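Researcher: We're reviewing a set of sequences before deciding which ones to prioritize for further study. For each one, I'd like a predicted 3D structure that I can look through quickly. This is ATP-grasp domain-containing protein. If possible, include the structure in token form so it fits the rest of the review sheet.
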Amino acid sequence: MRVLVTSSRNTFALDIVRKLGSLGHEVHASDTYGGAVGSHSSYLAGHLVTSSPRFATDAFVAEISDYVAEHGIELIIPTFEEVFYLAARAAELPAGVRVYAGSFADLARLHDKASFQRLAQDAGVPIPETVVATSPAELKDATARFPRYFARAAFSRGGVGLLTNTGPLAGAVSIDDCVPTPDQPWLVQPYVDGPMVCSYSTIVDGRVTAHCTYTAPEQWHHSTAIAFLAVDSTDTLAYAQRIVDRLDPSFTGQLSFDFIDTGEGLRIIECNPRPTNGVILLEAEGFARALVGEVETTVVAAPGTEREITLAVLADCFTEPLSHLKTSLHDLLHVRDVDAGWHDSLAMLWSPASIVHGAKIEHGSRTEILKALGDDIVWNGEPIDGMSVADAAALEAVHAGRV
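Model: Here's the predicted structure for ATP-grasp domain-containing protein, in token form for your review sheet.
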């Protein structure tokens, strides 16, 4: 199989490259800058630097199309929010190539946290009480309802831009800097005590074929996970399948969910319709077979499996030594690095290039670095240049709350 993995800057994209490449598949990678870690793997047959899907959609689609045609790519595996641009413009890609993603309409329902909240309720998946705010006044009223609250934009990701009055991120964002609108609403929920639990799934024709549930013993600045521990998947697998059952029966792609463990059960928080680091905890052969549906039962990551991004753990250890030193030292001594066993260590040495790239696209603003790192590949709910009339109508329906 000839595969193109897009947004190769992500550690989990590099992991997908390695898993498929090690099994003999011809793997290519792309990103909007040459220093992306996944574009320097020894398992690659080739790589491409593209225009930004967000800021230059036409050029991005044309460049991907030309590369697919030149190299006979059979499957495109998106690993970040370029998935929306590829799904919206899939009809323009060469015949014979598949994008490993659901329809744009389903992806939009999942990504918009307001519509996802309704989808989860319809699927019978437990979710905290949620108030949708479409104006600054509604946001202030909503936060006043809860003594302890947690709020974020409907189109957000990576633990960036969280508004809360509780926990380590309390006060990090001012409510006066949050401007909800009908097209860009915010969600407000009561602050739920308990650890975060995450899941990652591959889905083929409406069936979850691989699944991993994991926690993050280490996080960078209380948001992005840098160490991962697989835990029991019984509940999250059932919830993931319930949600998939509410989508198009042919849905094929990757979904990741975030939950809070309240001590009395899980409550779902959000969906990322793309891979996350959970893929790292799956074994290569099982993942590859599940990706194309060649499994009779769901491949599940074994509880107790651990991985860490050692370079990030080291950085976090020195950034917040008092709070993280004990945990960081344990992880450095006992947890297997994401590079271990791949004989591909040069790829991760390109990690600093991501910081440089983020600084460049920041354009001198004070945007959080985590946000800046993905700013050229995100989708925030706006119409996509060249999208079909049907997809435009689906997007309008999501904003209007009719789906």
